Amino acid sequence: MFRVRTIALGAMAAMLAAPLAAAPKPPAKAPAMVAKPAPAKPKPGLDLNIMKTQVILDHLGFSPGVIDGKAGAGLKRAIAGFQKANGVVATGEIDQRTGAALDKFNATQPVRELTLTDADLAGQFVGPIPKKEDEQAKLPSLGYSNPLEMLAERYHTTNAVLIALNSPDTPVAPGARIKVPNVVTGGRAYPANLPDGYKQTLAGLNVDSSQPQADHIVVSKGDKTLSVYDAQDKLLAQFPVTTGSSHDPLPIGTWKIQAFDYNPKFHFNPKLFWDAKPGEKSAMLPPGPNGPVGVIWMDLNKPHYGIHGTPMPENIGRTASHGCVRMTNWDAARLSLMVKAGTPAIFQP
């Protein structure tokens, strides 16, 4: 493990692709955000108007998933959820009525500029995460590879988007000013019964402590969404999800959330994974946001099934899972404040 104080975004991005080795020492000077020259302006396709819509919807609880300033299926689903909650025909397109409803939040800016502090960059970073579970099990934690990855999750985006929003040679160091998606929240009055470590996780992911309380949730395999409802069946929030595969299909039916494991360890049992390689052995993986189930496991009353986070937020809604309901770490953490033991979880085709 190593503690990083001054390093650049691009050097960190390069570290993510490097093979596992002895942890490098912090450089004397902060290098650039990217290892190779890159345009200082946002990449083509990163639209600040789209990012503004994504940021507003994220604040309102209709998550587009990764905030990247690009139109796509995640944004369309988020708009459709917002429309359902506001009595508008759910087309996923911003029509006149939807635009008028969103205009109430027009003062929200898509990007916030902030000055990095020592506290912003504090943490233990583990370097590149090895692919094999037996090697992951040797790490002290499956924490963030470097501060860039930590900042990306904190602002509900990816390394590439942070690099695109900033100059490639912007340092990640105390005193540096960087631009991030404007998802900052202030509520930190988390329930007293939560572990202190998980409270820190929630704050680090910009999850506000003020969340609506669910009566039940509905997971739609077809829509790739998890919707949160109150007792009057009013839609309160919606999140994008990955829901199983042909090998491990989503278990259609009505289940219940029965327990929570905060910042969980993960028992890798190759017998439960159809894609496990011959010769792979069981391993207990340490906790961390880069663990297979991310920062939270919400256990269901069906053996081996749960709702959880992921180390790969950009893949939500795009790839398969092993039957469970997978979410971005920030969305899963937010959901964990909305539900409780006993909350019905209805899984639909």
Automatic annotation (TrEMBL):
Residues 1-22 form the signal peptide. This is L,D-transpeptidase family protein. Keywords: Cell shape, Cell wall biogenesis/degradation, Peptidoglycan synthesis, Signal, Transferase. The active site is at residues 308, 324. Pfam families: PG_binding_1, YkuD. CDD domains: YkuD_like. Residues 215-348 form the L,D-TPase catalytic domain. Pathway: Cell wall biogenesis; peptidoglycan biosynthesis. InterPro entries: LD-transpeptidase, LD_TPept_cat_dom, Peptidoglycan-bd-like, PGBD-like_sf, PGBDSf, Transpep_catalytic_dom. Belongs to the YkuD family. Gene3D superfamilies: L,D-transpeptidase catalytic domain-like (2.40.440.10), PGBD-like superfamily/PGBD (1.10.101.10). It comes from the Bacteria.
